[in-house]
Amino acid sequence: MTFSTLGLSAPILKAIAEKGYETPSPIQAEAIPAVLSGSDVMAAAQTGTGKTAGFTLPILQKLIDGPKVRANQARVLVLTPTRELAAQVAESIETYGKHLSLSSMVVFGGVKINPQMIKLRKGADILVATPGRLLDLHGQNAIRFNQIEVLVLDEADRMLDMGFMPDIRRLLALMPKKRQNLMFSATFSKPIRALARTIVNQPVEISVAPPNATAAKVKQWVCPVDKKRKSAVLTKLIHDNDWGQVLVFTRTKHGANRLTKELEAAHIMATAIHGNKSQGARTRALAEFKQGEVQVLVATDIAARGLDIDQLPHVVNFDLPNVAADYVHRIGRTARAGAEGEAVSLVCVDEFDELADIERLINQILPRETMDGFEPLHVLPASSLTSRPPRKPKPKKPNKGRKMGGNNQRRDASAAPKKKRSPQGAKRGSKQGESSGDGQQPKWPGKVPAKRRSANGNKASSGRQK
Ligand code: AMP
Questions:
Q1: Would you tell me how many other CB atoms lie within 10 Å of the CB of residue 42?
Q2: Residue bearing the CA closest to ligand 1, atom 5
Q3: Residue 32's closest CA among 10, 2, 11?
């Protein structure tokens, strides 16, 4: 299959070719015709599958014909849970629409509202927004929704997790009843289906690349280590292997700050990205990391969600996530768009339960490899996929509403408290997407055989070779 058979016009095909895409990804092959046909769409696809182009390309195509956008209006509204994702989607729209004369704009919180209000006066064919700031803008009469033709909910599962549903419902009530709805979510869990019933109408359902299929492209291994020696191990891994670009996940904002300082003390350029940082600092950190000016980006889960960094070779779980599904999201930051990647988890004995949950979710025992000189005093037990029932995620601190830590973050995204999610939440009965066919890149994720691996078999590359 090629893009030209999908019903996209020459200016869009030109932009796709300039971007270097040769074959539509499975989600694109299914979503593009569905969106063009005018149907509502409900798609299970996570970041990394090419979903952004899956909805952006047909939307651009549809907008070519049609009425001009009016002042303080938008024809397409894309809602995302985080500012970083909003910025990325807006960037994709610019890229794919660069040979068209359509306007697009992105709005999110944490930055001044006035410039956004001024810019909205002209209206925007496509508006990308985080829900909180959009409601603020509506409250100030800077945006009205009468002209909305298409609504996209991106990462709807995260919107639920982050407590955005009341905002979304308020926004939905402001929109015209007759519109096309596109909903993208990493999973089709029960709560997502319940939400979908209130939004989409007789949707075309698309489901490709289950999370563990993405994980299959990533070389994963576990480095057992005592908690207090983790930062020394990380430093050694980075130095010994000359790792140039590493995304490191910590569980807490405080932990991210502390680790950043420790890395800097070891002469490793590092910066942290989390919800307590100002939007300016977050944007700067991401830009410096993408440009290679900073070697290590230390991130908490929510801040890193949806980040698309080209060819990111290494992901390190400094702490394991409390919710197993987040492991899959984390390691999905590498091996994107068919590339290969490596994910190492530094695991101490206290994290055995979390590790066991992850291994059960991905149906795979991760190979262990200790570092010479860092053998743990507290030994990490061997796991088994069947020996114990799934652990209930530890209860989180009570949800204090949407008020954020830090300045300027009254409503938006990344610092919002996350609700508990069951590990099963990430399981999905999904249809496998077709392969890219011609053996050319990109090689989109294939299905993972539900095979059991022994802890000793299939030894992972330690990533220590140069
Ligand atoms: P997304 O899932 O939308 O975040 O996209 C993940 C990555 O895949 C981005 O870096 C895109 O530029 C890239 N991508 C999207 N579609 C294609 C395609 N058809 N061929 C190659 N790369 C693609």
A1: 25
A2: 50
A3: 2
Question: Per the structure block, which two tokens stand in for 323?
Answer: 């919710």
Could you give the CA distance from residue 3 to residue 465 in angstroms, rounded to a whole number? 39
Ligand 1 center–CA 441 separation, angstroms? 11
- pTM for the structure as a whole: 0.64
Using DSSP's 3-state secondary structure scheme, residue 206 falls into: strand
Cβ-Cβ contacts under 8 Å for 299 (sequence gap 6 or more) = 247, 248, 249, 250, 256, 272, 273, 274, 307
Specify whether domain 3-207 bears CATH 1.10.600.10. Answer: no
Mapping DSSP to helix (H, G, I), strand (E, B) and coil, where does residue 188 land? coil
For 411-444, letters b (16+ CB in 10 Å) and e give bbbbbbbbeebebebbbbebeebeebeeeeebeb
> What count of other Cβ atoms lies within 10 Å of the Cβ of residue 394?
10
Best probe residue, ligand 1, of 5, 47, 51, 52 (max atoms within 8 Å of C-beta) = 52
Residues spanned by CATH 3.40.50.300 within the chain?
3-207, 218-362
Look up the CATH number of domain 218-362.
Answer: 3.40.50.300
Indicate which residue's Cα is closest to atom 15 of ligand 1.
50
DSSP string across 268-310: --EEEE-TTS-HHHHHHHHHHHHTTSSSEEEE-HHHHTT---T
Residue 345: which of 336, 326, 40, 337 has the closest Cα? 326
- Give the pLDDT of the chain (466 residues) as one tens digit per residue: 889 999 999 999 999 999 999 999 989 999 999 999 999 999 988 777 889 999 999 999 999 988 999 999 999 999 999 888 899 999 999 999 999 999 999 999 989 999 999 999 999 999 999 999 999 999 999 999 999 999 999 989 888 878 898 999 999 999 999 999 999 988 777 888 888 888 999 999 998 755 444 555 678 999 999 999 999 999 999 999 888 899 999 999 999 999 999 999 999 999 998 878 888 888 888 888 888 889 999 998 866 666 666 667 899 999 999 888 788 878 877 765 555 688 999 999 999 999 999 988 887 889 999 999 999 998 888 877 665 555 655 554 444 433 333 333 334 433 333 333 333 332 222 332 223 333 233 344 432 222 222 333 333 333 333 2
Q: Which residues line ligand 1 (CB under 6 A)?
A: 21, 23-25, 28, 47-53, 308, 310, 336-337, 442
Given CA atoms 300, 302, 303, 304 in this order, what sign does their dihedral have?
A: positive
